[in-house]
Design goal:
Strand content of chain A: under 5%
Shape of chain B: elongated
Strand order of the largest sheet of chain B: 6-7-8-3-9-10
Number of strands of chain A: 2
Order of helices and strands of chain B: EEEHEEHEHHHEHEHEEHEEEHEH
Largest sheet of chain A: 2 strands, antiparallel
Oligomer: heterodimer
Helix content of chain A: over 70%
Radius of gyration of chain B: 25 Å
Number of helices of chain B: 10
Number of domains of chain B: 2
Number of helices of chain A: 10
Helix content of chain B: 25-40%
Number of domains of chain A: 1
Structural class of chain B: alpha/beta
Largest interface: A-B, 27 and 35 residues
Chain lengths: ~250, ~300
């Protein structure tokens, strides 16, 4: 294992994050605060409680997930797409490293950034609502798994994308709707039965439900199902990445 | 000198069926500078890319210091540094960080003294904290070289290092390559500037349409192919070579105003003195005398034009 290379890629990617630290942090903090103002204060005052949890607190896990997923995808996809775009990918391809090391460097950095922002949002939310995390260990585990699996997914998008438009396409057209419809701001049980069934096909439902369970001990689906779903998604992404490097798809002719 | 790079029957066909390399075989000795000359699309970059791992070979094998580029890719690639043709650098990164990154990527631990040495040799030390986007084109090329040297490779590939580079920087590049040779680094460079090959290479390979047409010591090549030509320009126009000069291998040029004599610079006697005496003896007045030596460029053009009749 070329640990030195993994470290080099990881630090290089993190350096990009720290170069733009202000915009990396201010933007999620600002948008989270806006969500709290709009959903928590304005709408929440009419909803009161969801499954025994105040609405303001109820949306915190969903909000964190929403940001973490989109951040993990955008960071990882940009991280690998940019070297392709400017041509510096030649160095990665000619270096004494294998696909696992490249993935560990890029995905590790993207997941770290996403997690960092997730934690910032959690801290921000403490200023707005009163939250007690029932299963901190499970919360951290869900957070890490979500960051890693969505960073992997973003990495695949970055390799697939042929231009900046495509880079935005999947997050915009697929991920954002799935996350919004995945119960970020509501409980699935609040939906009509038909929509509840449809929601079960949305993988994000399982992640948000599991994450929310870690916070409040209540969930839309069983925690084991949530874990299985995220493990399956991670496995699927890992398999895809392995295939990409095995065949050189879109990167090595 | 032992062989450091051995290429055997290397073939590369792209998905669209285009055969960029058609069975290239070449052995390169440690410490030498070899220039691969060829027109655009000859397969130079594909050859380098395949050796360095950027493209996958269709068949054949390449080994670096005995390590196969596919089976032992870690060892093989650790020994290789690559300077690509296009300037490809992270614009917002600092010079020193991008060089450190390359070193780490190639599995070497952080060693500030080594990085400093490389940056100083490439006259980049003063610019070490500059963002790459703030550098001139020439400086960016130096950064590419610094990155390629960051892990102290034994084989350096320079893909068209001086394409679009001004004369001064080109000379600097040549000096850098010479300096690397002193450290025992083997350099393989591709170019379509004949001048470059003539100036710095020990050996010259000519590649065209995915095949190596010839590889030879530069000096031997020049000597072997380097026939010299003497043009004897006359004050009178001739219709045929005078009988008195029948013993020489002469042709008429310039519509009869010039006698052209070909001779070998390597032979003891070139026969020039006797020829000129005999020309005067035949009653011909000389207007001027010009000698010409075929350059590497002539050789190159003749090879690329008619590959069958070469080597």
């Amino acid at each position: 294992m070329n640990w030195s290379a993994i470290r080099a890629i990881y630090l290089f990617e993190m350096a990009r994050f720290f170069r733009t630290i202000a915009q990396s942090l201010i933007s999620p903090v600002l948008s989270t605060s806006l969500y709290f103002v709009v959903f928590g204060a304005a709408i929440g005052s009419r909803i009161d409680e969801v499954e025994g949890v105040s609405y303001g607190a109820f949306i915190v896990p969903g909000l964190i997930m929403l940001t973490v997923m989109t951040q993990a995808i955008s960071n990882a996809s940009f991280g690998i797409y940019f070297p392709k775009f400017i041509g510096t990918i030649y160095e990665l391809l000619s270096a004494p490293i294998n696909f696992l090391e490249i993935v560990m460097g890029y995905v590790g950095a993207a997941a770290t950034k996403a997690m960092f922002i997730g934690i910032i949002i959690l801290i921000t939310s403490f200023f707005f609502v009163d939250i007690q995390i029932q299963n901190p260990l499970a919360m951290v585990m869900f957070l890490v798994l979500t960051c890693v699996s969505f960073a992997l997914f973003g990495f695949i998008i970055g390799i697939w994308a042929g231009n900046f438009e495509q880079l935005q396409l999947v997050p915009l057209l697929i991920v954002t709707p799935l996350v919004f419809l995945g119960g970020s701001f509501y409980s699935i049980s609040m939906l009509p039965p038909a929509w509840q069934t449809i929601s079960m096909f949305n993988p994000v439902v399982y992640l948000i439900s599991g994450f929310r369970w870690a916070f409040f001990g209540v969930a839309d689906v069983h925690i084991a199902t949530s874990l299985l779903a995220i493990a399956g998604f991670t496995g699927l992404c890992l398999g895809a990445v392995w295939w990409i490097f095995k065949t050189g798809w879109r990167i090595r002719q | 000198m032992p062989t450091i790079l051995s290429i055997k029957d290397l073939r590369k066909a792209y998905d669209d069926g285009f055969e960029a390399l058609k069975g290239v075989s070449l052995d390169i000795d440690e410490g030498e500078i070899i220039a691969l000359l060829g027109p655009n699309g000859a397969g130079k970059t594909t050859l380098i890319s395949t050796i360095c791992g950027i493209t996958m070979p269709t068949s054949g094998s390449v080994s670096v210091a005995g390590f196969d580029i596919l089976r032992d890719f870690r060892q093989a690639r650790s020994l290789i540094g690559l300077v690509p043709q296009e300037i490809a650098l992270e614009p917002f990164e600092k010079v020193i960080n991008t060089v450190r990154f390359s070193r780490g990527l190639f599995g070497k631990g952080r060693k500030d003294a080594a990085v400093e040495d490389i940056l100083r040799r490439l006259s980049l030390w003063d610019k070490r904290d500059s963002q790459i986007r703030a550098l001139s084109g020439g400086m960016k090329r130096r950064v590419l070289i610094a990155k390629a040297l960051a892990h102290e490779p034994r084989v350096l590939f320079l893909d068209e290092p001086t394409a679009g580079v001004d004369v001064e920087l080109r000379k600097d590049m040549w000096e850098i390559v010479e300096g690397l040779r002193a450290d025992g680094v083997t350099t393989i460079l591709t170019t379509h500037y004949i001048e470059e090959a003539e100036a710095i290479a020990d050996r010259v390979g000519v590649i065209n349409k995915g095949e190596i047409l010839l590889v030879e010591d530069k000096d031997k090549l020049m000597a072997r192919m380097g026939q010299k030509q003497l043009d004897v320009q006359l004050t009178t126009q001739l219709t045929e070579v005078p009988e008195a000069l029948g013993g020489y291998d002469l042709t008429l040029g310039d519509e009869g105003w010039t006698l052209i004599y070909s001779y070998d610079t390597k032979s003891e006697r070139t026969g020039i003195t006797k020829l000129l005496t005999d020309v005067a003896g035949a009653g011909l007045q000389l207007r001027d005398v010009v000698t010409r030596q075929s350059s590497l460029e002539d050789i190159f053009v003749s090879l690329v034009k008619e590959p069958e009749g070469s080597a």
